[in-house]
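Consider this record:
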Amino acid sequence: PQPADAPAAAPRESPVVEVSDLVRTFGDFRAVDGIGFDVGAGEIFGLLGPNGAGKSTTFKMLCGLLPATAGTARVAGVDLRHARAAARARIGYMAQSFSLYGALSVRQNLDFFGGAYGLSRRQRRDAREAALDAHGLRPLAGVTAGRLPLGFKQRLALACALLHDPAILFLDEPTSGVDPLTRRAFWRRINARAARGVTVLVTTHFLDEAEYCDRLGIILDGRLIALGATEAVKARGRTADTPDTPDTPDTPDPTLEDAPDPTLEDAFVRLIEAEQAGRAA
């Protein structure tokens, strides 16, 4: 459950994703332990945490790929306990590892996923041609996906996830292994989608790219330990070495004037360490 001192999320108007007391167990192991948050239309929400914290398990439940053990989750107004297939029709999902068909060409992958999303033949053709141009894949349309460089595999995976123009996009460690320029180009595409009203949920272990998110949740051992606007979460990394402002602005302490603002990494490490210390105590 969310700790009492975790900052509460700002109220969302007509949230597109609603999660309450979500639990997933595997035998005696609780991979997700009572988390809750909501996400509004056009918002970019980041879920951060160490490896094994429960981020990907949470995403799989919200995408309808894995049933929840307890709790509730609504995506695009659909209760995932009762209509997972209906919810999946409204979302796009980009998995952590390349999950397309390596033996099929770029064009064939787009055709296949267009059919899987229920597009008609004409819709599938139009969406495929638009995706080839929008993601710079047309020169590689006939190349088998398994032979693509990693950056182009990422482009193809994103193109397939967006093919049916989903209202909600789930990105699970989407830029793992790609270079910084490719990551920046990827986020330009994501920001453009969010500007058009698409809701984006992302997990990432690159804390610098988490800065693109409007709000963040930090998860540890399946529990949400921080939730709030990105700048508010970052501010929780302040220490004597990274103060906000001197205590007495009229007579500033020269040892503090040049202290750097805390980074998201500062906040992430501090929150994780504080939570672990509290549990140990």
In short: The first strand starts at residue 17 and ends at 26. Residues 137 and 152 are 8 Å apart (CA to CA). Residues 264-280 form the longest helix (17 residues).
